[in-house]
Design brief:
single chain; four-stranded antiparallel beta sheet; 9 helices
Length: about 475
């Protein structure tokens, strides 16, 4: 009779029966050909070993020829050997029945006993088939759960991979942006210090020259004073009067103060705070995006809106303005567009809100309906936020009402290729809301100061200069 270990080695891990047409996978594990086929039948894409869970992109199985021969020999031995029998310890009878109530195999005598008289008893082979079917169903269910868990594992791994990639991208972007600013500031610092050295050295040279001239004159005066004192000590007249004319000439020596040297350094170096404001403005050239200076386009403005002469602010005029009809003008909605538009790149601009209780700000597609009461939603080409009591009904995200401190200045960031429109409180750059979408046509900044109902919303929206 075959040893239990050999029987275990020749048992398929899926059907728990002796192998039928055994095959092996790339990981080395063996299964019945039909078992592994059924296990992979409903799995889309990559598959895995039911035993070790190694994932395979190709469904490669190979016949285990040596194992096939061993299984055939094993079956021959099993046929020629008497089958092992199991007996009831109490009655020494074969276990031919199965008690479903107590879930155990029993003999015929047990089945007729009072202990099992009221129990559900079925033939043991029938019970084996029933529980085999149940285990197969359970195995299939567990396999599905394992497949789901594998799919979930891959999703989590993908999330981690993409998150790491995004962190790396942002880290590189931060390094790149600050490297540009550091390089720019370092070069400006070196230029400013070099200019300071050049100008100051020239001034110091003139001042040193004046000091040298003064000290030379002092030496001449000191020598003349010594000679005069020495001559005054001479008693004999002839000796006293010797070269008296030259001595008198030297005694008439005068000190002439050197000309004043200008210590005024160039305004580009010494001007406060001019030198730093100038550098800050120049540094905008290396910042991306550069804060934009927008203007309003009166041609697009609703006729109830009043646009300032410098085209940087808009408010409710409470009455119709005398403007000609234009296909680009908003007739039913209280909007105006900027004169500037964007079809690529990254852009940032700011809008002054003041204490306005109502406003709408964002971007829109060039092709939006300007003649009807269209809902300002992304589906209709509007990516806007608002301070309104009825945001939800207008399908505008309510990014403001829950804030304890309402923003007085709004920052809007557009990344065209990245499909992103983000809004910030421009005073502390706290994030308010972000839209993600795909942009395929020209985008315009859009503004609405909303109605000045009962004089409670008189302030304008103001485009802040970059």
């Amino acid at each position: 009779m075959a040893s239990p270990d050999l029987t275990q080695e020749l048992t398929c891990p899926i059907c728990l029966e002796i192998f039928t047409h055994p095959v092996f996978l790339e990981c080395g594990h063996h299964f019945c050909s039909s078992c592994i086929s059924q296990s992979w039948q409903k799995v889309p894409g990559d598959v895995s070993c039911p035993q070790c869970r190694q994932v395979f992109t190709q469904r490669n199985v190979r016949p285990a020829r040596t194992l096939i021969n061993i299984v055939e020999k094993f079956r021959e031995v099993k046929v020629t050997q008497p089958q092992e029998e199991f007996y009831c310890q109490e009655h020494e009878e074969k276990l031919k029945l199965f008690c479903e109530d107590e879930h155990k195999a029993i003999c015929v005598v047990c089945g007729m006993s009072r202990a099992h008289k009221t129990h559900s008893v079925i033939p043991i082979k029938e019970a084996a088939q029933i529980y085999k079917n149940k285990l197969e169903t359970s195995l299939e269910t567990l396999q599905k759960q394992m497949d789901l868990s594998l799919h979930s594992k891959r999703e989590r791994e993908d999330e981690i991979f993409h998150m790491k990639a995004e962190v790396d991208r942002l880290r590189n972007e931060i390094n790149s942006e600050f490297e540009k600013m550091h390089k720019f500031l370092f070069e400006k610092e070196e230029l400013m210090k070099a200019e300071l050295e050049r100008k100051s050295n020239k001034i110091f040279e003139e001042m040193e020259n004046n000091l040298t001239k003064t000290m030379d004159k002092m030496s001449s005066l000191e020598a003349a004073i010594r000679d005069l004192k020495s001559r005054l000590e001479v008693q004999l007249a002839p000796e006293f009067l010797k070269d008296i004319q030259d001595l008198l000439m030297r005694s008439q020596m005068e000190f002439h103060k050197p000309g004043t040297v200008s210590t005024q350094l160039p305004v580009a170096i010494a001007g406060e705070p001019f030198k730093y404001i100038k550098v800050w403005r120049e540094m905008r050239a290396v910042i991306s995006p550069v804060p934009a200076s927008l203007t309003l386009d009166p041609v697009t403005a609703n006729n109830l809106l009043i646009i300032s002469q410098d085209l940087t602010s808009v408010r409710d005029g409470n009455e119709e303005q005398a403007r000609p009809d234009h296909p680009g003008r908003f007739d039913k909605r209280f909007y105006v567009l900027s004169s500037q538009s964007f079809t690529s790149g990254r852009h940032y601009w700011e809008v002054g809100l003041g204490n306005k209780p109502r406003w709408i700000v964002g971007v829109c597609r060039e092709s939006v309906n300007r003649k009807e009461l269209i809902i300002p939603s992304p589906e209709n080409g509007f990516w806007v936020i608002a301070r309104l009591p009825d945001c939800k009904s207008l399908k505008i995200p309510d990014a403001i009402s829950q804030l304890k401190v309402k923003p007085r200045k709004l920052g809007i960031y557009l990344d065209y290729e990245g499909g992103q429109v983000s809004f910030y409180d421009a005073e502390d750059m706290s994030h308010l809301y972000t839209f993600t979408d795909t942009f395929t046509e020209k985008l315009y900044p859009i503004f609405s100061p909303c109605y000045n109902i009962f004089g409670k919303n008189p302030d304008p929206l103001t485009l802040l200069s970059g």
